[in-house]
Amino acid sequence: MNPTFDRDVWNLTMDWLGTGETGLPEDPEKRDKIALAAQRDPDVAQVDAWRAQAEPIPEWASRVDGDTPHWGVEICNEAWLAYLEAQVLKIGKAFWFSGPGWCGDESMARRQWASWAAQALSRWLDRAPPNALSPLSAEIDALLGERDPEKAGAAHLLKETIELTGASPPGRFDEQFQELEAASRLAEEMRGKIKYLQFRCGYRWEQIVLESCRAIGDEAYRQGEPRFWHVGCCNGQIAFAYRDDPLRVPTTTGILIGLWAWLKEIPADRVSTTYPEVASLAERVRLRLGEITPVKRWLAGRLFVGVRIWLQEYDYGDLTPPRPALEAVPTLGAS
Q1: Residue 220 CB neighbours (<10 A)
Q2: Residue 93's domain spans which residues?
Q3: Do 94 and 64 touch, CB atoms closer than 8 A?
Q4: Are 157 and 194 contacting, i.e. CB atoms less than 8 angstroms apart?
Q5: Which candidate, 1, 15, 8, 93, places its Cα nearest to that of 305?
Q6: Are residues 192 and 304 in the same domain?
Q7: Which of 109, 128, 286, 335 is the most interior residue, by most CB within 10 Å?
């Protein structure tokens, strides 16, 4: 029996995945939902059986389990692929280390990019020529076009929002964003869209900044449908994975297939025949995981389910299905 891919099962399984970080919750209703996940999803039941066989669970494994993909570790995160690679390494080496990938985290490279973007907006507002030493200055200047009061008000709000995303303490962004001035009609019109920039850990954050600049400078683009430039929430970012990050889904798929092949001991030649586009990456995952042990099998099973349901979430929200290179999600019951 294959897992039933509906939203109810998805949510139950997410509760189950979250127990790695929090332990079994005290709330009886929550415990019942987690138990129901195993009844509704055979993969969950299989991994629970593997956990029983892995007892006693060592400390390093409990910490790796706490990083299992669930709420807070999501496919829309900038560091999602680096996170998955780190999880495979942790399991293969039987060692925990702190890695990237949690909501709210941003890379140092993104922090530098944001600084360049804010500086470029400042130069445009000051009518200064683009900075030849900045890789963004000329691009942003061209997107904004000729300066006028309407565009200047929106560009100023965009610049201040970019700066606020890096400086605002956790939980204070909404309050501080409300204090920013919308100094033109266009700034007020775009205010709700620019607010999406608070999700700086999202993988398409740079695209949203640049598309916001394009929207300020080009009224036709701003009014066009669908309004790609303002989709910045979690599901909204997932929906543009093919266009804005073409490696994100195939790489995630390759890792999923690698976990499946390792757990089910599927021969490499069969993987190459069935999933040729991701077979090389799948084999790399298998090699990094090494020899199967009860603890590693349980952790890899948890990771498999977490990757699987985030690919389901991608399928649920994407604008251009089907997913490439994977017509059907493999399951732990399949051979």
Answers
A1: 7
A2: 7-104+245-317
A3: no
A4: yes
A5: 15
A6: no
A7: 286
